[in-house]
Amino acid sequence: MQMNTQFVNLTSENLANEHLCCIIRSKKPHPGVEAKRQWLSERLKEGHVFRKLCVKGCVFIEYAPLETAWVPIIGSNYYYVYCLWVSGEQKGNGYGRALMEYCLADAKEKGSSGVCMLGAKKQKAWLSDQAFAKKYGFEVVDTTDNGYELLALSFDGTTPKFAPNAKKQEIESKELTVYYDMQCPFIYQRIDMIKQYCKTNDIPASFIQVKTLQEAKELPCVFNNWGVFYKGNFETVNLLDINSLERILKK
Predict the structure, then answer these.
(1) Along the chain (251 residues), what's the average pLDDT of each consecutive run of 10 residues?
(2) How many structural domains does the chain have?
(3) In which domain, by residue range, is 22 found?
(4) How would you classify the pairing of strands 78-86 and 114-120?
(5) Residue closest to 23 by CA, chosen among 11, 35, 38
(6) Same domain, yes or no, for 151 and 200?
């Protein structure tokens, strides 16, 4: 398959018409995609970058200045990568490399101190491939007690770190608690699905939408757009399906 080199960055002008790679749908509006569009429309003003291949598929990178990234990570003059995703038939064409190299070049051009992303000792399904990032020199610069890692590629020797509150990993409430924002198009339907399951099975649950940068920076757990607690303990940043939800509830 020949490599398509046509990439585009989302802007306030093209945001309404560009396909948002994660969820493939017909012309019919998808609530998760529309929620993401709304979220992005505010973020683009803050220097958030969403760069995608001009195909109806999953080939994109999404990153932002760490100061305005909705994650409980602190540092000066860094970029934070939310998501780098190449899937399906688009794999193996060098698109991941092209997107990563674009991000690193953009960071250097803007005089950034480096680029960071969330990882884990054991790769999580909903986090970008950290083995791929490590090929570019990303290294673990901070860790949590339960195996999450902050990876960074530093250009000047400085490093970011998890906010102290992110290492807390406990809340007072014992019921199933999900913190989320609308950064990922899959979140809308996952929240809906879990709410229905909990209602049907009489499981008390709280769903807390993170609506501001300050709320995101003050979260009691690591967070890329989603965080789950049960019995007061932090469980995962992975978006839940019914099977993974049931495994948590059996604890």
Answers:
(1) 74 85 64 90 95 86 97 97 88 90 97 97 89 96 96 98 97 98 92 96 97 98 97 96 96 87
(2) 2
(3) 7-162
(4) parallel
(5) 35
(6) no
160, 78 Cβ separation under 8 angstroms:
yes
Question: Which CATH number covers residue 113?
Answer: 3.40.630.30
Task: Say if 176 falls within a structural domain.
Answer: yes
Q: Helices 31-43 and 187-200 sit at what angle, rounded to 10 degrees?
A: 130
Q: What was the pLDDT predicted at 22? A: 67
Give pLDDT, residue 1.
44
pLDDT of residue 17: 83
Say if residues 180 and 208 touch (Cβ distance below 8 Å). Answer: yes
Residue 26: partners with Cβ closer than 8 Å, 6 or more residues away: none
Name the region of 110 (left: φ>0; alpha: ψ -120 to 50; beta: rest). Answer: alpha
Backbone angles phi, psi at 94, to 5 degrees: 85, 10
Here the tokens at position 225 are 């757009």
133 falls within a domain: yes
Tally Cβ neighbours within 10 Å of residue 124.
17
